[in-house]
Structures are given as C-alpha cells and as structure tokens.
Amino acid sequence: MAYNSHQRQVKTIDQMGREVHFPYPPLRIVSLVPSQTELLFDLGLQKQLEGVTKFCTHPHNARHKASVIGGTKNFDFIKIRAARPDLIIGNKEENYQDGITELAKHYPVWMSNVTDLPEALEMIRGVGEITGKLHLAESLAAAIKAKFDAIQARPALVPVAYFIWRKPYMVAAAGTFINDMLQRAGFSNVFAHLGRYPEVIPEQLAKAAPARIFLSSEPYPFGEKHVAEFQEICPAAKIQLIDGELFSWYGTRLLFSASYFQTLQHVQG
Prior knowledge:
By secondary structure, this protein is of the alpha/beta class. The chain is built from eleven helices and twelve strands. Strand 3, helix 1 (34-42) and strand 4 form a beta-alpha-beta unit.
C-alpha cells in the first residue's frame, strides 16, 4: 500500500476493540454502511470517499460520487481493490464476518459496534477522529445529544411491536439499536424479552397485544397494503407505517430522529 507524503502511519482501537493501523489522514475511504456513508459526507469527506454500497442512498448523490462496491453483506472485492482504499469503515451488525476478515488481510478496516445512542455518538466522534474531522464530529454528536435530551418523557411507555420483515414476520427485540430508539421515543417493546431480530408468529403477536404496531420502511418495504393483515391479528392496535431510517440509522440522520419520535407520540389511536 502506497502512502502519500502528507500521511503518517498511526494506530487506533475501533469499537470492537481491534487495533487498526492506517495512514493518517486517510485519503481514499471505502464505506460499507449506509448511515456511516452519510456521516462521511456530513464531515465533508466526499472527495476522499472512493467506495460505497448499493444501499447508500443518503445523500442522494452518494452512489454517483463513489464506486458502488456491492452490498453490505456481499462485497465486490474486485471493485474494492480498484478503489485502492487506505481505510475501510464497516459495522459489526450490518456487515458479514467472512467479508470483513478477508478485507482486513489487505486493508485497514475500522469497525463500529452500535447498539444504543451513546455508542452511536461514540462512533460519530471515532470516525471524526480517524479522518481528521474530530472537531466537526464532536459538534454533530453534541447536537444529536441535545435533541434527544429535549424529548419530553411520557408518563408511561406505550407498548409497541416493531416489524422489520414479512414472510417470515421478524421484529426488532432486545440488544438492538432500534430497541434503544423505541425506549427513547416513549415506547416499550413487547418483544424486548426476545433477542435481536427474532421470527414471530401471529399467535405471539396477538398474545403480546401491543397498543401500536410499527411497520418499518426498511429493510422490508412495508406499505399500506400490509396494514389490514396486522389489523386482523390485533384489531385493537394502531398500525403505523414508520420511517425505518430514523430508528435504525445511527449516523447524522439521528439529527432528525428526535423530532420524528415526538410526532409519533402524538398520533392518536
């Protein structure tokens, strides 16, 4: 790997506790995670961004500014090699271990591990630090924290089920970033006793009897045509189509999440 004369070799510890050696500041970056791609743009690093995934939809021109190097769980190693990265940024949950292991044999790979808001803010500051944009990253993290601190607490949490998939039905449960966001938004997850992203059957949903059922816009594209099937299972529940990005993207999109959560609190039903 060739280094620019303005770079120096440094080391850091990523959010998975891995020691990463890389040229600083990194001049050619590949991002394997949509929310972190958006963060890199917001840190003013679009010129350094050489590769993104096909799911990197924010900002709208992200996939035009950089090479598309496959998906989050199926990397195109040939395109990544062509991007000649001196730093790759990934995530424990969104990327696949075998792919990351292979990339780490050839390139510096910095991994995030985000399951709640404090870890998201730590990730933002961490990416800022390794890219030479710490001051801006700290400002963004502080702004996000302030918005969440301003959320008015509910007198009681509203029971909710958060669906991410259909056929089979899958929900977000304990240990996920979504679950942390639900609690901060004023909701209690009726499947919090389960782990991660379990499959559930209609009988389980009916027994859980949530007051609200959230149908996420991603990864499964729930729409109005799906509302009736959930209403049949839980006639008393309020079924809502929600913006999944504002619950699951843990980068600078969080700047919009807190106010969105407040609007959800005020929905009647």
